[in-house]
Structures are given as structure tokens and as C-alpha cells.
Amino acid sequence: MIVGLGKTGYSCAMYLTRKGIPFSIVDQAEHPYLLAKLKEELPEVHFSKMDLERLVKAEEIILSPGVPLQSEAIQTAAKNGARITGDIAIFADEVDKPFVAITGSNGKSTVTKLVAEMTSAAGVDAGVGGNIGTPCLDMLNEGHDLYILEVSSYQLEVVEQLNAGVAVILNLTPDHLDRYRDVTHYYETKARIYRGCKVAILNRDLDFDFNLSSEVQQLTFGLDEPSAEKEFGIRTVEGRTYLSHGHKLLLDTQSLRLRGRHNWLNALAALAIGHAVGLTMHDMICALEKYPGLPHRCEWLGAFSGADFYNDSKSTNPGSTRAAIEGLSEAGRQIVLILGGDCKGADLSDLAPLMSQVRRCFVFGKDRQVIASMLHVDAVVCETLEQVIAHLIDEVRDQDQVLLSPACASLDQFDNYEHRGDEFGRLVMENFA
Residue 115 in contact with residue 121, Cβ under 8 Å? Predict the structure, then answer.
């Protein structure tokens, strides 16, 4: 039984069909958006709204990422003998070529795409997907030589032994606390990515015990100076900062199109991954110099009214927003910050110390009042993003950096973070361009 008919659930249905394995599908909704497509492509497949009676009869459950493993219905089915798995776990059992698994609270998509650019520069046929882009099971028959997967904590919940060729946790900050018991539970779920891996890439700044086997090869990255050939880091020479491998200088950070110290870390992680899979430094550095970053991730929209506008709608937790603020602060110019949405139970008070770097703060969306109270500043509280823009027209000053970095989920008012970012861009263009 497939539980959840979203993008992943539909991919699992097509995979099981190719394998000739009988299955049914259930979903919390009576008419999920892919139901019509399913009925057209696979009219013989039984679909129904999820109920406990059907669920406990399942021998095996393929759980979509949007359905919590800890939900009462799934736990009841497990106690009744159902084996629980997911698309990433199935992929790991099926794939016959090496794969890279990338997770973290922030930066997963940036690093995944960056490694893909590096493999492309090197002429390596790599399949790229997972939690972004193409679902992993859709790539199994494409015959790639290497797979690069972004993996979420939701997907890792049902992983027992991933056996990735290369695995990395980019960073860990509190997130999804509406889904996990506490921060430790969330971090432990992320740590499943290292289970059975051949090469583990570690962030030296993370204070967490991953219980890695002594047999696992380790590479590390961080913003400090690398002291050995297994380390990637930052070296400062005559006032200039360089991405470095051991004692070797690789690239002046001013040559990166990705701005901010958080993106230095992303670049270092990508270099470590590429090194682990055998890419040359030349190919990786060429890709790094060209890589512009992702839409909705500190995306520069343009300079209007003397101010720079940045769309960082993909920042859906406080850690990501912290990185964006710290990254733009290096420019030495004042920041106008826009926060808001559904904070998912997260504590945004960790952003309060950064408010000294923010000239003006706007808060909107479902949890606007709660967020404003956490920040201990005189924030402008608005109901909608459109209202924020209306206030900005009179408040933006020359040399400001206007940053939409919500630190919250978008689903209270938008379809997804892309919709939120697109709407921000539209409003900026209509009112400032």
C-alpha cells in the first residue's frame, strides 16, 4: 500500500507497476491533485481515502514523505506487522551504481545542484533528483553512472541502511519541530544518512556524535583553516580569503557568484563531495566560478530606488534566515528584513541578536504576532506580503538591502515557497522597477 498520492507517491506507483507488483493507494484527501492522472495512467489501481481498517491490513507500506512515521495510523499498522519503507530506501536497495546522498537543515538544494554542475563539467553522466526535481525511483532505468540525491529528514525516517557511496549532513539547526519529539530526535533522523556509507563528509562545526564506524572514510569541511589533506576550509592570505584543500589554495572567495559565508560552506561541501567521487579540482573550480545559485535562495532581483532586493523565500526555518542575514551583513550595508508565515513551532528568538544588523523588520502571515514578540524589536506587523510592500514604498532608503527571508513555511498563504517568492518578485517589479 502506498500512503500519500503526491509527487513521490505517484512515482512509487509507476515503479511498482514497472516491477509488476500489485498495490493500492490511500491518501488523507478524497481527491488529491494527482488522482485524475493516476486514473488515466493506471485505471486498474485501487485508490481510497485513508482509513485505519484498510491500513492495518497492509503487508508493506510505502510512506510518502508528507506522512509522518510517528502518526498513530502508521504506528498502528507497524504494530500489526506492516513493513514500513519509502522511495529513498527502495532506491538504495535497487540501484546498481554509486550515489551521493545530501541532507542538512539548509543548503541541500544549492549543494545538490552545484555538485551536478561539477559532474557536468567533468563529463560525468549523473542523475540528479530525490527531494528536488526528479523523484529517485524515476531515475532507476535511466542508466546513469552516478546519482546525486537531495534527501530530506522525512525520507530518512524509514531508512534502516542507506549504503550511500558518499553521504553528507551540511548543517543542523532546529526545524520541523511540529513533526519530531524534540531537536535531538530531528538530528538523529538526519544522522541516518550515514548508515552504511563508504565516505562520510562531516561539517567540523557540528557538535553531534554520529557514531561512525572506524571503517568509514571521512572528509571534513569548515570555515577554519584545513590542516590535513582530508580537510576543506578557508585560508586567509594577505587579506584575501580562499577556499582551500589542506594547504593548497583553490579559489579566491571573491570569484564566487554565491555570496556569503554560508555559501562558502556550501562550496566547500560540494568540493569535498566531488573529490570523494573522483572529480578533478580543475573541473570543480570551473563549475564553482560559473554557478549563480538557485532561484528563491538569496536571489538578487535587482537594484531599485537605490536598494538591492533579494528573494530568499526558500528560507523556511530560522537557521536559513540567520545564514542569509549574516551573508548580506558582510556587505556593510543596512538590511530591511521581511519575515513571516507558519513558523511550525520553531523558536525564532534565536534571530533576536541579529536584529542589530537589521534597520527595519516587517512580519506578515499566520504567526506574525508570535514572531514579532520573539524578536524584541519594533517590527511592522502586516497581514499579507502585499501590505508589507505597501509600507516599503515609503520606507526604503538608498543603499538598503531588502531581504525576504521568511524563516517560516509558506502554506498559510501560498501554494509553496516558490509561489511566495514569485509573488514577492512580482510585487517588487510592480512597485519599484
Answer: no
Phi, psi of 364 (to 5 degrees): -140, 175
Write out the three cell numbers for 129: 533528483
Residue 394: CB partners within 8 Å, gap ≥ 6? none
pLDDT at residue 65, as a whole number: 93
Q: Pull the grid cell for residue 414.
A: 501560498
* Residue 397 DSSP one-character state: -
Count the neighbouring beta carbons within 10 Å of the beta carbon of residue 27. Answer: 22
What global pTM score does this model have?
A: 0.85
Residue 382 C-alpha cell reads as 502586516
* C-alpha closest to that of 108 among 253, 331, 269: 269
Residue type, position 222, single letter: G
C-alpha cell at 238: 594577505
CA angle 57/62/67 to nearest 5° reads 95
Alpha helices in 341-384 (DSSP H): 368-375
39: helix, strand or coil: helix
Which positions are catalytic? 108, 131, 176
Question: pLDDT tens-digit profile of 164-178?
Answer: 999 999 998 877 777
Say if residues 399 and 307 touch (Cβ distance below 8 Å): yes
State the alpha helices, DSSP H only, in 281-376.
281-290, 318-329, 368-375
Assigned C-alpha cell, 126: 549523473
Report the chain (433 residues): mean pLDDT per 10 consecutive residues.
97 97 96 96 96 91 93 94 97 97 93 97 98 95 95 95 97 80 90 97 93 94 95 96 97 89 94 98 97 88 92 92 88 91 91 95 97 94 98 95 97 96 97 93
- What does the alpha-carbon distance between residue 111 and residue 288 come to, in Å, rounded to a whole number? 11
Strand runs labelled E in 105-253 = 126-130, 146-150, 166-169, 199-203, 217-221, 231-237, 240-245, 248-252
The x, y and z cell numbers of residue 69, run together, are 512515521
